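task queued by scheduler; priority normal; single chain, no ligands, no partner chains; default sampling; output format set to structure tokens
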Amino acid sequence: MSKVVTRFAPSPTGLMHLGNVRTAMLNWMFARKMGGKFLLRFEDTDQGRSEQQYIDALKEDMLWLGLQWDDEPLFQSKHAEQHREALEKLAEDNLAYPCFCSESQLNLDRKLATSRGLPPRYNGRCRQLSGEERQANIDAGETHTWRLAVHADSGEVTVPDMLRDNVIFLRKDLDDPVVVRSDGTFTFLLPNAIDDAVDGITHVLRGDDHLTNSAYQVWMLESLGYVAPVCLHHGLLLGEDGAKLSKRTGSHSVVDLRAEGLFPEALQQAMVRLGHPNIPEDALNIDELMKHTDIEHLSTSSVRWSNEAMWRWHTKFLHEKPASELAPLLSVVLDKEGLSIDADKALALAEMMSGNLNRVENVLQFKRLLDANTTFSDEDKAVLNEADKAFFEAALETSNAVDCTDWKTWMNALKEASGKKGKGLFLPLRIALTGQSHGPEMSKVVSFLGEDGVQARINGVLGLL
């Protein structure tokens, strides 16, 4: 096998989404596993919609995901001359032809074919025109598209596919697809295929919704004397409801996920495991994931995306982060809320909260640890009222009598003074000190707050009761 060269070829007309992520990761992983090259190519021929901001965002998202490309990024627009030359060569060989049919005529043809129980393919009307008739129409300024002359009564096209062996299409079942629109711009089919040939792409990994496109592209490349790349058409990525993935069914842009604080490792885990059911749970980085993946045995079935699985991996990585790495993340979130703390305080907070957060932003649920004036929910107020004022007066008194930063000592003293025990003893204090009914160990809480912090929060509760 020659050196493997794969590519990720997004259109810079929008942000990177989950479907893009899967395609990019599969192509990157296959190239890395085979010791080959992974190229990044922007299909920017739609100049009206392609924007530099999307190019920059796609690059940032790729690097955030750890998908470093080889060489400089490529741009489809740089190959415009090769695209035009390919069309001219196909036209010279009568393998491409101008189509002058109006959209209304095409719609009428489709309806007629459907009414006869036939597939709504192009009927080949303009394919029958002589060279003189075609040129006369062009010279007269007739609006036209360009089509490939693929459809035939006999013959076949073979698409080499790593998952499905050879996929054979009968030419009688294929259409004459449009490769140039009426405004003179190319559709996806020709530039995408010519770029792969020019860039030396050996393998193309993409969704099985491109199988028919691949048949057209293989036919075209072989007609031009190129060797078509080997394909891998994997099952589609669906939403959690089994429908096509969209924002409504759980899709997100990578930019949005980054803004939500998602760790790239979590997205890697959730994405790579789709279609690879036998990866062990302890494969916790991209290198380990690659050891247990075999692209050629990837599931051909559609797979369903799970936001829950992605965030579950995020929580796992969050719980395993050292306090030194967690502290700066907490500081960023707190700074946005006007709760700035110094590095030492942030480190102490991280050491206490580690294992108690599903997301970094959850630290805001414990704002009372940093601000004694934080208000309580109605449900928590009910617990505080039930404990009654006498209980908190006893809590304040015992906090002066013993070392309240020693949780066990303080609780023994308060238990004796108040006569309360179990949940009736612990829960009101947890809410009073942290603002939450669950969270880190109380021994860590009182140590973090110190005597002044503990008493300030008890006094705050007494002011409410």
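post-processing summary
- The chain is about 45% helix and 10% strand.
- The mean pLDDT is 93.
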